[in-house]
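Protein: Alpha/beta-hydrolase
Species: Echria macrotheca
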Amino acid sequence: MENSRAPLQKKTTTFAVHQIPLECDIYDAHDYSTDSPVFLYFHPGGLVAGARIVVPPWLAQTCFRHKWPLISASYRLLPQARGEDLLQDATAAYEFARTLGGAERKVIVGGASAGNFLATLIAHHLTPKPLAVLSITGIPTFRHRFFNSSVLIPSEPVTEDDVAPFVSGPVTIGRDASHPLSVFDVHKLDASGAKNPLFVPGDRLPPEWAHDPERGLLYDFYLHENLFLDFVGSVDPGFDWAENKSDPEKLKNWPTTIFIQGDADDDVEADVCSSVASALGDKAMYFEAKGMPHLYERHMFLEDIENGTGPGEVAVKQAITALDGVIGGV
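Structure follows.
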């Protein structure tokens, strides 16, 4: 059973055609201002899987509270796509967000896990810069040693035969929603934007989506074989420029970047984010959740975060407060 009065409306539209149509979901409401900031979000999945319908409820609620339209954009996946393709997709999504509704808009960019890589590409390569970057257990660079030293070695290493069907497949966007619980449904919120206690999630995914964890094996395979830079290195400047202060103008103009990371993450070493945050200095805020795994917050609502006192809830709460401070000061 669900409350029929959802606070958000969802619209799906094509924002670009790059070999294949690229769609995004827009979550907003009729009373939103046409000059408010827009939040552009990229989904997790190691650049090889995932789906744009996977959006944390707390992020949707945060955008609703501020009356920020939330755009969750698809992008082409590795290995059929390369770094230049990801930059092209991120650029198109950013330009779409900047002109949403026909007006010039300011944009906050963010992503979960590898989705943050696309958000960071925007900060690296595009102008005007986004208002802020929100990295949710994210991957800001594939030049970090974690992605080039076979750190993550599966107990049973993935083989070329395991991933062959995906390597030889067509150009695609992410369609793996992992689990029905991960899918954001506007009816998860009641008319006020609060967690809807009457909502009962279904056990089936919408027909156009799939539960296909096997494609995710590509992440383990490319990590084990140290191949990620081969795919994205051409557009990934890394963070040496910030660490060595070799490009002070770029550092000066870099948007404030807010990191949420669990220190028990078994997919992305915590040092991936903490190293980048340290290099960015006062341009970064880093909130670590002790004992928390990868994407631990994916099913949380604001009520869980605001009422919780554990390290996971506290880290997200701190990040939201930090984001409020950054955007409120613009």
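Remarks: The domain at 9-328 is CATH 3.40.50.1820 (Rossmann fold).
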